[in-house]
Structures are given as structure tokens and as C-alpha cells.
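Give me the 3D structure for Diaminopimelate epimerase.
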Amino acid sequence: MSIPQQVTKTHATGNDFVVYADPEGTFEPTADEVRFLDDRHFGIGGDGVIRLAHPEDVSDLTPEQVGECRAAGAEWFMDYRNADGSLAQMCGNGTRAITLFAYDRGYAKGDAFRLGTRAGVKILTSLGDVEGLGCNVFRVQMGAWKRGEPDAFEVTIPGTEGSARGTYVDMGNPHVVAVLEDGKATLPAVEHLDLVTKPVVAPVLESDQNVEFVRVDRKDADANEGWATMRVNERGCGETLSCGTGLCATAVTLRAKTGIDHWTITVRGGTLRIEVSDTDVQLIGSATLVGDITLL
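Predicted structure for Diaminopimelate epimerase (296 residues):
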């Protein structure tokens, strides 16, 4: 087995992970092992597996990527795998979960932690407990975003009547965000969607994508604040209780539609805050260590 005997269960607003540290670079998981760990019936259960390793010990990274991590001061890398065993470029909630783990185990020190990911180095700042957001809250500097033409895609759910228009956003991984009450959607309300079934996006993107469905709950243009509710179907996972990059993609899309930069978004796993600028997105939310598990 190429995973250690002891692993840890974590979650960040309900997006749950099996995590472990690999400081010696000897425990890179196989796809089968990831699927076993994330199986909710026969394994531990999770939306993904995260190995905390040094960048040079992550086999799919190029020398250039390792050099970029080192140049940015990132000693540690988030080697993230989806529940189906596939590699993932980025996971916003996963950055908070693995950072809390790194602080707890002594791999991270100080108020800020530079974490390598396949979508570049992310800077996480500890905010402690924040009213409305929970305990062990981190601010994640998610970096640059790219958005396509608004409403350029049609989003449907097999077996569900209706459709919605979706906007493509690249957050280091691909998203299509559908705002349901903009006058162009005929799908059911966000609470009643069947997201066990994978949504279909047309035209087809070159790669699979996460799909977010959003309802705007309230706007205050004078205060530059908005509130929304979101659900998500993640590639390689299915519906999850939260998705950090999806929350960022949602805020980017809502900013394009409303001009509002600051969004408080509720997902099934909790509430997070997202702040969008022309060059960056900040994701603010909690993380939790659930417990250590010894594999037999």
C-alpha cells in the first residue's frame, strides 16, 4: 500500500477530505487507493484525498512547476485527488482543510501559509473564529480568474424539465455557473434540483467542468454587498456540500451581472464570503479536523 497507516478526516464547510502528510515523499497514492479511501460505504468517505508533500515529491509536476513553488516560498504542496482517483488542479475548500491540518501538525507556522497547488501558489491567512463563518477561518488568496461571455452555455439536467444559461469561469479548474432567476432559466428552484444526476453543458467544453446553480437572495448596491445560495455538481465527485473554486466562480459571475464585488454565499455545508477584484478572488471560510484514523 502506498498510503500511510494513519490518515486524518477533515472538512471545510462540508466538503470532506481524507488527508495525510508525506514529508519523505514515499506515499503517493494510486487511483485505486484514492477510490478506496473516499468510498463512503467500504472506506472512510470523502470528496477527495489530499497529500501534503514537498513539490519535488509530486510526480506529475514539471521542473518548472516545482521551481515556481520554490520561488514563491511554498515549501509544501497540496497533492489533491478527486474521489474517482483523478488528479485535480485546484480545490479552494481543500486548501483550507490541508492548511488547518498543516498548522495542527506543525508543518505551518505564523499567520500566513504559502501552499503550492497545480493552479499555482495560494496564500492562506488565519483569521481565527469569525462570526457568521465559524471556527478556524482562513482567507485564501485564490489568484487570477478568467471569465467567458456571460450566458454562453445551455445547462440541462437529464430527467429534469427546463434549462438555464451558464457562464464559463476558469479558477484554475473549469466551471459553468447558472443563475436561475435571471429570466432565462426554466429549471426548478435551486432547492429542488436533482444534482445526483450530472448536468449537461452545451456546447461541450474541451474538458469536463463543475456546474454551479445559483439564486440571488439579496443585493445592496450602495454597500457593494450581495447574498446568494448555491449548489454544485463537481466533476469526479458528484454533488458536494461546498466547492471553494465554485463559490469563487459564482461570485465572479454575479459580479458580471450585478456589479457587486462582495458576496456572502450559503451552500449546503455552511456560509462563506467571497471578495472579487479585477485581478484576484479572496475566499473566506472555515475548516475542521474531524479525527485521526488508523488503517488496518
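The chain has a mean pLDDT of 96. Let me know if you want a second pass.
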